Amino acid sequence: MRTRLGIKIHSILETYFPERRVFLKSDNDTRFIRLRPGTQLVAFAGSALLVAWSIIATAVILMDSIGSGNFREQAKRDQRTYQARLNDLSSQRDIRASEALAAQERFNVALKQISIMQSELLQSETHRRELETGIDVIQSTLRETMQDREAARDQLASLEGSLEEGGATTVQTAANSAPIDFLAQALERTAKERDQVVAEAQEALLQADRMTQEIALMRDQNDTIFRQLEEAMTVSVAPLDKMFRSAGMPTDRILETVRRGYSGQGGPLAPLSFTTRGEAPSADTLRANRLLNQMDRLNLYRIAAQKAPFANPVKSAFRFTSKFGFRRDPKTGGRRMHSGVDFAAGLGTPLYATADGVVTHSGWQSGYGRLVKIQHEFGIETRYAHMSRLRVKVGQRVSRGQQIGDMGASGRVTGVHLHYEVRVGGKAVNPMIYIKAANDVF
């Protein structure tokens, strides 16, 4: 059975792959190699597999090339979109900066107006008290004069009655004429004084009405000034509060920390008091004190903003080459965590501190190359790596916007750029949170 099957298979193979002989001739001898049908089938199958593998490999390489081309095009489109977004953010930042400057100017003007308003209020209250005292004196003098006039009238009536009852003679009448003339003159003087006092009282009342109108007008002006101040404070405080909250920073705790560091009392932010008679504070006084509290909060916000990295370390033209998070390692090709963001620009581009702080490291560190570490308030640390030149020393206190080094390509890099990190409590966070939050204010 097997012999027949083998003979049948051999005959089929003979049909497609007949036996061949390959002759090998030398100078002295001639030999040949017999290629049986099975050997030819194996060779043909191997050749077919090799050709198929070549076709598949070529197709894979071609598809990968097409895919990588599409990826590059997509990356270029993403880069253009990101650049347009950056330009838009930059224009918005400039607009917010101009609005902040305008709000600051309005705030300064309103502060001057409220100072003038305080002085005018104090003067008006003093004048009002003087008028009240003058009116009281005039009223008391008028009452005394009227009492004297009534007494003189009573005395004159009694004298006239006594003259009529006694039937006085001509001599007696002449003798008594002198007191009567004296009384008449006294009455005339009293009447004139009374008229003068009445005129002065009427003038004082008119002046009091004018003062009341002036005080009402001054109150309207004060209300306008207060409203402008409140609007200016809202415009100034709201962006700062939004900036801190966007960065995930608890504003109440941060402001309390700043307040403890600046805990002096008194000075221009002391509560206002417009009265010295122990009365309850007026509505204007309470409103002014609320504004002063908001001014204190605004000042604390600005102090805190100077101490947190709400700024861009590169002020010259640049482009982002790598974002925060997991990425493909440019050296090994593996996937690993990138704990900062990369800014690419020309060699020697100035680099600046993003907040006030103290330099804790300025030197070489493996992987980072020339590295500067700055410790800020609230447990925040910033790192600036791969520099070509260091311009600060350990222990040096730096301010926001101060140059700390030049961009370079030291350490583990593939080209000139800045690797910028922000760490909170030793843990790396996305620096773009702070940079984007600051775009609405600075």
How would you characterize the overall build of this protein?
The chain has 442 residues and is α+β, with helices and mostly antiparallel strands. The protein folds into two domains: 105-307; 310-432, Glucose Permease (Domain IIA), CATH 2.70.70.10. It has six helices and 14 strands. The protein has helices at 2-16, 37-166, 170-246, 251-261, 283-307, 431-438, and strands at 20-25, 30-35, 319-322, 325-328, 335-338, 341-344, 350-352, 357-365, 369-375, 380-390, 397-398, 403-407, 418-424, 427-429. Strands 3, 6, 7, 8, 9, 10, 11, 12, 13 and 14 form a ten-stranded antiparallel sheet that branches. Helix 3 runs parallel beside helix 5 (283-307). The chain is rod-shaped and about 200 Å long. The two termini are 95 Å apart. Mean pLDDT is 76; it is low at 168-176 and 266-277.
Could you name the key traits of this structure?
442 residues, alpha+beta, Glucose Permease (Domain IIA), 2 domains, 60% helix
Layout of helices and strands:
Elements: H1 2-16, E1 20-25, E2 30-35, H2 37-166, H3 170-246, H4 251-261, H5 283-307, E3 319-322, E4 325-328, E5 335-338, E6 341-344, E7 350-352, E8 357-365, E9 369-375, E10 380-390, E11 397-398, E12 403-407, E13 418-424, E14 427-429, H6 431-438
Antiparallel strand pairs: 1-2, 3-6, 4-5, 6-13, 7-12, 8-9, 8-11, 9-10, 10-12, 10-13, 13-14
Give a brief outline of the structure.
The chain is of the alpha+beta class and 442 residues long. Helices cover 60% and strands 17% of the residues. The strands form three sheets. Strands 3, 6, 7, 8, 9, 10, 11, 12, 13 and 14 form a ten-stranded antiparallel beta sheet that branches. Strands 1-2 form a two-stranded antiparallel ribbon. A two-stranded antiparallel ribbon has the order 4-5.
